[in-house]
C-alpha cells in the first residue's frame, strides 16, 4: 500500500492525496511530517534530502516532488483519463502541471507568505507584496483566457491531474486577501471541479 507523508496544510501534499483519491488507490496518510524539526530529522532526510513534503513510499522505493508523484499515481493506477497515454495528450497535461509549479508558484510566493502565512521575512516589504500580487493576478488572467477557450477543464472535457494542481492554486488565490480581477471562466471552472467528491476533501475553505 502507498504511504503519503506530509501535513495537509501543504498544497503539494493535498495534490498527492487528491490524485490518490481520484485514482482510487489505497494509501496511508502520515500527516505528522510537516514541522521544521521533523523535516530536518535524519530519518526524514533519508527519504527526501530536500527536507520538504510530500514524500511517497511505495513497494519499490521512494518518490518526492508532488507533480512527479501525481504522474506516478495516475500511471500506476492505469488511469489514462487522468494522464493520457499518447505523447501529445500527455504533454498537454504535463505542461500545465509544470506551469503551475514554476510560473504560478513563483508569482504568488511573497504575497501568500506575507498575507496568509504572516511570515516576517515578507511582511516588512510592501512593495514586494504588491509586485507579487500583480504577477499572481497576471498569471490568473492567463489561465482565465485558456479556460474561456477550453471548456469544462484545462484540456477540454476531460478532468486530468493538471486540473488537480490548477484547482488547488485557484483555491489558494481565492482565499488570499488580495484584490482580484473579474474571472468568470475561473469561477465556473472552480465550481465544476467542486462537484467531484474527491475535490471536496482537499478544497477546504479553511485551508488556503
Automatic annotation (TrEMBL):
Gene3D superfamilies to which the protein is assigned, alphabetical: 1.20.1050.10, Glutaredoxin
Residue stretches making up the GST N-terminal domain: 1-81
This protein's name: Glutathione S-transferase domain protein
Pfam family, one: GST_N_2
Ranges where the GST C-terminal domain occurs: 86-208
Species whose genome carries this gene: Providencia stuartii (strain MRSN 2154)
InterPro entries for this protein: Glutathione-S-Trfase_C-like (IPR010987), Glutathione-S-Trfase_C_sf (IPR036282), Glutathione_S-Trfase (IPR040079), Glutathione_S-Trfase_N (IPR004045), GST_C (IPR004046), Thioredoxin-like_sf (IPR036249)
Highest taxon of source: Bacteria
